[in-house]
Amino acid sequence: QVQLVESGGGLVQAGGSLRLSCAASGRTFRSNAMGWFRQAPGKEREFVSAINWSGRSTASADSVKGRFTISRDNAKNTVYLQMNSLKPEDTAVYYCAATRSQGMPGRYYSGSYSSTADEYDYWGQGTQVTVSS
What we know:
With 133 residues, this protein is an all-beta fold.
C-alpha cells in the first residue's frame, strides 16, 4: 500500500508559478512510477505528467508541455510538479498517483503522450489550484 499526500496548491494570477509536492509513504516509493492528474469541475480527470521510478524518464500532456515539469526525490519519497506560466484553464484539483510498476503507464500516439486514471493504483486526496485572469 502507498499513501500519498499532496500540498502546494493555492490561488495564483495568470502567468504565475506554483510547485506541488506529493509525499509518499508505505510501500517502497523508489519502485513506483508516479503521475499527476487534474480534474476541473464538470470534467473528467485528465493526465498531466508522469515519471518513471528512477526519474530518468518523464512525459507530459501537450497542454502543459514546456510549462510544467515533473521530478522526484527518492531520498525524500517526494514527487514534484513545477508549474510555470499558469493559465486560467489550468484551474483544477490536482491529484498525485502511483503505480505498482517501475515504468510509466501510457503511450505515445502521433507524438503525444497519454495516460488514463485507471492505469494508476494509488491516489492522493488532491490539492486545489486556482488561476485567476
